[in-house]
């Protein structure tokens, strides 16, 4: 459940009218609901009950400082994939000892930075990366806490671009090779083996791949124990899907309950989760204004001021996100492709949408709180959108719209 709803014929974010936000801050603008973020985060945390656990929000879904700060205040952990994300979490008041560092290509500088600030764990993704972490830790005279991301070879049944747990994907270590590598890591003076982790994909709408992966990881943890390698935490990654259209993913509490039930006797293991989308997607919308309506021979276009550079999910993954009027009209509906001003045929936010609209109306693209702003760009030299967080009856500007000058910040021209 989220806190975006129609009240007296107008779309509201909590107690703030979205029309007021659009008029105050212009469009395109992302709007996040604090109450929704908190509700979703707590759904994960509460369902884990008393079992030792840590919800490590996946920063890549939405890394605005205000969003990270809301999580930090809840006591959240964080899953990061770059030095930039690490800096953001610290800037937002996140606790470094609750950060896990994922990603297949950590640089020496990133590893150094993470060791200096004392993160909870490196989720190493290959033998070569593990060697590098060991070397950097040695050069700093530190001990790096590590987990190995294993690839359990399960089919997540999601879009191929966001499926990560199959043998042919670039992620993780083949589960059959894991024991040997763990044994090696266990002997290194500058590594401290702590965990096993996996992440099998994103936008999963079925529990069975998660359960299959969990079964395989439990077998591995027992094999490791027999080989003298003690594992203190199990990180099950993120990946729980959300309802964009007619998907029926399990509720976070159902997902957590089913997984935690399987682990109830493993009190020796702290369980980590890395949800991103399930917390943020439906905690955000993208407000946009209709610039023009245009009719070609057999197609009608609703041309809006947001584009693929603001929200690339439709163009990149053929993703479907609901597009609704901020103040619905009574008039007749027509079928539109909702498109942006970018010079690409692939620049659309939604196709074949039944809308009753006129130029000047505001629309909201729903479920855009995750992988919306964080995947935005300056393509076509478009400034990136403003971001607002609503908290009850108050709207806070949490990222200014970029300025034209910021478009060339850091650039220079040749002197002669
Ligand atoms: N942990 C790791 C190691 C990940 O790679 C990811 C996402 C997550 C956690 C969080 O997954 P989530 O709970 O959000 O599914 N841009 C794509 C999604 C890419 C996800 C990449 N990894 C999209 O817009 O659908």
Automatic annotation (TrEMBL):
Alphabetical list of PROSITE patterns matching this protein: ODR_DC_2_1, ODR_DC_2_2
Cofactor(s) this protein requires: pyridoxal 5'-phosphate
Pathways involved: Amino-acid biosynthesis; L-lysine biosynthesis via DAP pathway; L-lysine from DL-2,6-diaminopimelate: step 1/1
CDD domains membership: PLPDE_III_DapDC (cd06828)
Keyword Lyase: yes
Gene3D superfamilies cross-referenced by the UniProt entry: Alanine racemase, Lyase, Ornithine Decarboxylase, Chain A, domain 1
Domain Orn/DAP/Arg decarboxylase 2 N-terminal: 35-281
Location of the Orn/DAP/Arg decarboxylase 2 C-terminal domain: 30-369
Protein's job: Specifically catalyzes the decarboxylation of meso-diaminopimelate (meso-DAP) to L-lysine.
Family stated for the protein in its record: Belongs to the Orn/Lys/Arg decarboxylase class-II family. LysA subfamily.
Subunit structure: Homodimer.
Name used for this protein in its record: Diaminopimelate decarboxylase
Source organism: Psychrosphaera aquimarina
């Amino acid at each position: 459940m989220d806190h975006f709803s129609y009240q007296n014929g107008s779309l509201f974010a909590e107690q703030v009218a979205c029309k007021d936000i659009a008029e105050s801050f212009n469009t395109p603008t992302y709007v996040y609901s604090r109450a929704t973020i908190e509700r979703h985060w707590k759904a994960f945390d509460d369902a884990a009950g008393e079992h030792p656990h840590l919800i490590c929000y996946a920063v890549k879904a939405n890394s605005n400082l205000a969003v990270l700060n809301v999580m930090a205040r809840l006591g959240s952990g964080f899953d990061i994939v770059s030095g930039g994300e690490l800096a953001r979490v610290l800037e937002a008041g996140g606790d470094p000892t609750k950060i896990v560092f994922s990603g297949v290509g950590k640089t020496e500088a990133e590893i150094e930075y993470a060791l200096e600030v004392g993160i909870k764990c490196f989720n190493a993704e290959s033998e070569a990366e593990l060697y590098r972490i060991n070397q950097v830790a040695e050069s700093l005279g530190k001990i790096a806490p590590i987990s190995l991301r294993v690839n359990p070879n399960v089919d997540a049944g999601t879009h191929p671009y966001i499926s990560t747990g199959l043998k042919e994907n670039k992620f993780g270590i083949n589960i059959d090779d894991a024991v040997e590598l763990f044994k090696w890591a266990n002997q290194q003076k500058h590594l401290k083996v702590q965990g096993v982790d996996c992440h099998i994909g994103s936008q999963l709408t079925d529990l069975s791949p998660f359960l299959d992966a969990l079964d395989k990881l439990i077998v591995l943890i027992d094999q490791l124990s027999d080989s003298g390698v003690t594992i203190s935490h199990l990180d099950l990654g993120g990946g729980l899907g959300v309802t964009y259209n007619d998907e029926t993913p399990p509720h976070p509490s159902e997902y957590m309950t089913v997984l935690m039930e399987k682990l109830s006797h493993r009190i020796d293991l702290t369980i980590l989760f890395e949800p991103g989308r399930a917390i943020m997607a439906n905690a955000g919308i993208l407000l946009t204004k209709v610039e023009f309506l245009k009719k070609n021979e057999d197609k009608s276009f609703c041309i809006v001021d947001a584009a693929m550079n603001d929200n690339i999910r439709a163009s990149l993954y053929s993703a479907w996100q609901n597009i609704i009027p901020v103040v619905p009209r009574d008039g007749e509906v027509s079928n539109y492709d909702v498109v942006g001003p970018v010079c690409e045929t692939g620049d659309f936010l939604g196709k074949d949408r039944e809308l009753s609209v006129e130029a000047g109306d505001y629309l909201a693209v729903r479920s855009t709180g995750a992988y919306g702003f964080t995947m935005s760009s300056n393509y076509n030299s478009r400034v990136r959108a403003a971001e607002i967080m609503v908290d009850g009856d108050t709207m806070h500007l949490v990222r200014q719209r970029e300025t034209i000058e910021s478009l060339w910040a850091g650039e220079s021209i040749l002197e002669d």
